Structure formats: structure tokens, C-alpha cells
Please model this.
Amino acid sequence: MLITRSLESFGNYCMFLWRAFGVPEKWREFFKRYLAEIYKLGIDSIPLIIIVSLFIGALCTILIKLNINNPLLPRYAVGLSTREIILLEFSSSILCLILSGKIGSNIASEIGTMRVTEQIDALDIMGINSANFLVMPKILGLVTILPFLVVICMGTSLFGGYLICVLTSIVEVETYIYGIQTMFIEWYVWFALIKSLFFAFLISSISAFYGYTVQGGSVEVGKASTDAVVTSNIMILLVDIVLTKLMLQ
Model:
């Protein structure tokens, strides 16, 4: 039964995406909503990203220093290890897991509320492709803005490590800076950006699907928001493993 329900949900999800990615009827209205979604889903998330990234960068630096306090290891290994953790995993995967709670629940609850209040039915009656009208700007908006958020997260996290070095002298500032510059591999930055495109699509499309297909009232909208976040997180972790295997092998 579980496999049957999963296959049925996946089939409905694919059909939903087929409807969502149609050609917009009014391009001016589409670009207007597209820009609005970029601001709502991405720009509004920048304060959260900066706060979380500063603390994570500082914590990574402290914990790495405490766990590799070995005279055989060079002191710049703290900066180097912090950089690798941030570039390879935190700035893309962990950040998207955090954002899925904020952005995913927002998308699912917004579209779900429109469904239970029959606003989506009204769009369908007027001959408008409601999936395309509501969902495609959200998906393309998040896919567009998330790589920029990842870059902000990278810079802010490394600055958080720098800041904790300045405030506590846990590592010399010059040593930390030398560490984040040593043996730098540019591909790791591109790897994080490529992953963010996949994660942005998963968060936006899965959340929109759960909101669009909700049935019932406000209680079901809340449940759909929760299910959207949980499913998005699971898919992010699975895709993260696959992409890491394919792109870093």
C-alpha cells in the first residue's frame, strides 16, 4: 500500500509539474509575479541567512580548533577545515534544509489557503491555468535567487569565523585567513551553486504540490505545510548524496 500511494503521489506530482510549466498567457503578469516571488522568497530571507551563517561560521571555527588541537597539525588547518565544511555542505545543503522550513511552509500554506477558499477553483473557471499562474513564478523565482543566497552564506560564514578569531584570539587572524586561502579548489564553489539549483526546485515544487492538492480546511493546510517541509528535507538529503557521488567522485 505504501509503495502504491508513493507511486500515485509521484505520478500526480509529475502531472502537476506538466501543468505548471506551460507557456504563460500574459508575459507581463508573469514577470511581475516572478519578480515579486524573488523578493518574497529570497530577499526577505537574507536577514535569517546572515544571522545563521555568522553563528555557524563562528561555531565551526571554535569546534574545529578544539578537536584538532594537535601539535602535528598546522594551525592554519582550522581555517582550511572551516572553509571546506562551509563550501561543501553548509552553504548549500544545510542552508536549504533551514530555508525549506521558512520558504516551503510559506509556499504550501499560501497555495493551500487559496485552494480551501476556492480561489484556485475560481481561476480554473475563468479559463486560467492556475498551476502555471501560481506555481511557475515561485519555482523560477527561487531557482534564480537561491544561488545568490548561497554566495551570501559562504561569505558571511567565513566572516563569522574571522570575527570569532578577532574577538577571542582562539586562532591568530592571519593564520585563519591563510587557512581559508590555502589549497583552494574553485570547483567546490560551483558544486555548491549547482546543488542549490536542484534544492531550490525541490523546495518550491514539492511545497507548491502539497499546497495545490490539499483538501479540507485550515487543519489540512497546516498538515500539508508540515508534510511539504518533511518531504522536501528528505528529498534534499537524497539528492545531496547522489550529486556528491556524481560530482566529487
User: Anything to note?
Assistant: The chain has a mean pLDDT of 88. The longest helix spans residues 77-116. The two ends are 37 Å apart (CA to CA).
